[in-house]
Amino acid sequence: MTRFHLSQKHESDISMHTSNPVVTTPLTSNRTPYRTPKSVRRGEPSSEHRILGTPDYLAPELLLRQEHGAAVDWWALGVCLFEFMAGIPPFNDGTPQDVFNNILNRDIPWPQEEEQFSQPAHSAIDALLTLDPTLRPAAPQVKQMSLFSEIDWNNLLSATPPFVPQPDDSTDTVYFQARNILQHLNVSNFEM
């Protein structure tokens, strides 16, 4: 569920009566905390002298310490879509500084040949990773992208997900195995 759906009262029950609002949807069996990103919290001390976030997902305007808004979330969606399809983020590199340089130079190693993305996926990611935030698509444009043409946006929260993970217990990480292999992560079999 994304932020632009939270504003529609009929689709979710949002309790804002406490300092830690919660969201209840048909897809959740319990109340889920809804936390606002640190960059947009009101009444909090300013963090203008530091950048908050995971390096791979930061929009260029954050790195350049420019004013920013919701467009940073659409950038992050583009990064996530790329990572979902390729297994690694588009600007991945050895150090945070190298990641930042890749972001600012929009250095994207698009998968080739049998690994290349479909045209709708490539087009959506390419648009979401537009350097200029004023040209980056927002909710109305994203909803119209061919990649998302089969999504029933009006009934999103009542739709049956195509896949629901069935972990053995709360510590089961079997669904992360593919990512671990791609990133050459050696995960121990330590049991508690």
UniProtKB/TrEMBL annotation:
According to the entry, every stretch annotated as the Protein kinase domain falls at 1-148
Q: Which GO terms describe its biological process?
A: intracellular signal transduction
Entry-linked InterPro entries: AGC-kinase_C, Kinase-like_dom_sf, Prot_kinase_dom, Ser_Thr_kinase_AGC
Q: What PROSITE patterns does the entry give? A: AGC_KINASE_CTER, PROTEIN_KINASE_DOM
Q: Recorded E.C. number(s)?
A: 2.7.11.1
Give the residue spans that cross the bilayer: none
Region described as Disordered: 1-52
Q: Which GO terms describe its molecular function?
A: ATP binding; protein serine/threonine kinase activity
Task: Indicate what this protein is called per its UniProt record.
Answer: Serine/threonine-protein kinase greatwall
Its source organism is: Cryptotermes secundus
